[in-house]
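Holo prediction. Input below; ligand is calcium ion.
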Amino acid sequence: MRNGWVLLFILMLGCLPASAYDHKYAAEFLNIGVGARAGAMGGAFSAVADDASAGYWNPAGLRLLSRRQIGLMHSAQFGNEVKYDYLVFGSPGGVESYGVSLIRMGIDDIPYTEDAFHDWGMDNIPPGSPGDDGSDDYDPATNPDGTEGNGTWDPYDSTFPDLPGEGIDEGAIEYKSDVEMALLVTYAKTIGALSAGANAKLIRQGIGDASLLGLGGDDTMFGFGVDLGLLYQIRPWWRTAAVLRDAVGTLLVWNNGTRNTKTPTLTVGNAVFARAASNQVRLTVAADVDLRFEGRETASQFSTGALSADLRIGGEIAYREAIALRAGLQPSSRDKEPYGRAWDLTLGAGLSFRGMMLDYAFSEHRVFDQTHKVSLGLLL
Ligand SMILES: [Ca+2]
Ligand SMILES: [Ca+2]
Ligand SMILES: [Ca+2]
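Structure of the complex:
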């Protein structure tokens, strides 16, 4: 079986297409990570993946579920203007498991100022008002440097310290919303000692007056992709994983015809488990490496050419599987320059009681700043 694992792994590597060098950061909301338990462990979850959030972290992990499970996560930041929500259902069977995950990120009230500036010239005096003169009147033939009526915003510029620069008409600022959605349908199967899983993934984005599901909006995007995952129990205390997310490049098509590709990410992970005090205490330590091929450079921890690597580390200590404390390190969401940081700390805790799970995680993130995630889980 070990040979089979290696073979499948090589096959997954072979799926990396030559077009993997396009468009980094496309559909970046899918990299944020779901579930407060995984979030508290730095997202080092590809080899842990034993709850319903496996559909996201490693589709093969759905084989580790012993019962049907529903999960919910909510995360909000910036006065509730950025909302990140997640809903999952996972169902294990004899040798096959199924799951459905819905991920939604919504950002409300994004100010669009493009049409809100006063095109009055850098003196900010309206045409025809006292004090305004002809020297700032834009005319392509006679005064191409004129800033009044030139159709662009000319704010204060220290080259002209006596001029206030063009102001913004606050009443004319347009507020838009951005809704990003992903639907993952997961299938996993046990093949001997190996678990294998796959996601079919639909992505939808709407900017403007988008609805709850990202429909409508002025600018819309539709995407389709596939994730693949493998999980192998090497020893009773050691599990290893490989996940190829966006396996052949996830295609994103915008309504204006623009096409992006979300490039593949290969995650290789390991988790080890130790038990103590007559099995009442469980300790899990996990590490994942995310490999990308899109030239992230300073936005990653280690890079050479187009290849970049980011390391995630997480730990969980559980007492009677009822109370758990977690901590982790994840790649810093801030660019190495100018912040000079490679890691963000994650922390969290969980309670489990009669098939109900409540988890909390704290982490730092570029999009959300300090993020608080709350998850609820229910065994059916
Ligand atoms: Ca003027
Ligand atoms: Ca004028
Ligand atoms: Ca202007």
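Residues 121, 127, 132-134, 136-137, 148 surround calcium ion (ligand 2) (CB under 6 Å). That is the main takeaway for now.
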